[in-house]
Fold this protein.
Amino acid sequence: MKQISTVIIGAGQAGLAMSKCLAERSVPHVVIERGEIANAWVSERWDSLRLLTPNWQSRLPGYSYSGSDPDGFMTMAEITEYFRAYATQSAAPVEEGVTVTSVTGQSFGYRLETTKGDWLCDNVVLATGACSQAKVPALARQLPSGITSLTPMSYKSPAQLDPGGVLIVGASASGTQIASELITVGLDVTLAVGTHIRVPRLFRGRDIQWWMDQSGVLDTRADQVDDIERARRVPALQLVGDRSIDALDLNHLRRQGVHVVGRLVGIRNGHAQFSGSLANHCALSDQKMNRLLEGFDLWAERHSLFGLEPPERFDATHVDTDPALGLGLCDGHIRTVIWATGYRPDFNWLHLPVFDAKGALEHSFGVVAPGLYVLGLPFQQCRRSGLIDGVGADAETLSNHLILNRANRAA
């Protein structure tokens, strides 16, 4: 049985940022990682994926990108090496290959059971991220036999797919990127579209993330939003880490040859059924995009910014007059379905009364319970929280809270 002040679970960007902040405050701690450092980036992403944020935005406490391409986008191998270098530079006390199987409360704090021994500690930081599991709808069980079912966590490259058609369910960042990759290699791709957020990669000559960063959009705090739970469920932007593609939106995918249909609402008798609300979803997405861009224009005018290209707007999303409402799944054409329907955190090993009626972890700006913290969730403290660039500020805040809480217990 080992004992220490604080255990951080997860050695991705959130866990490493928290480790750096605790080290600066001389808090004894250990970082437990079930795989290797940056494990999710190593093993749970597809081969061609690049970060959706520019290199300059990969900022962590005491560490930032120093390469020759600040406006580029890291590959998975590059981001993995980036995090490993950060762990080395900060001397993070990471124990790799250790899986946490149970966290329970004790009178003195917390007890962690792992595959390599147990820990007793005063504080636990949950830094396993928001994307530990792929969300797959229950109707996936109705797929006819013979169709391969994948998620963005199990999809690696077009080479693993059987020849034939592919149905991709979900049109946020993962769904649109995979659709574009598969159509490029000659597969017949159908994309089922529900709620999505359309934005351009570049706006007035600057990356969309530059606008969101500089204008303060990313600094919107959780307590400034009317419905924070809804804000935390907002899908990822339709982006790709490639400046040569102006926008990876539905218009771009149509030009590539992707068949765009409405939201998948059911599978009955081997037949996929799509909603007739495609036009409404697209119109709402266009409206949100234009509202965002108008806000950027006003901000630029108010601050008298020079060197920007003139204001611009983009063509409305094209929707077929009579989009398909169904697709046969038993004729052998569709061989693969990819469920790009989002992700969820996995806290099945956390045996504490800290979940709401729907099973979601309850927290206030990352504070779950006395001595129990979570880091790296969407909109945890502000809109930036879900980005690599956001975990640093959240880690600073939680580290300060931990120090204060420890002082209060000692008093």
About this structure: The first helix runs from residue 13 to 24. The longest strand covers residues 117-126.
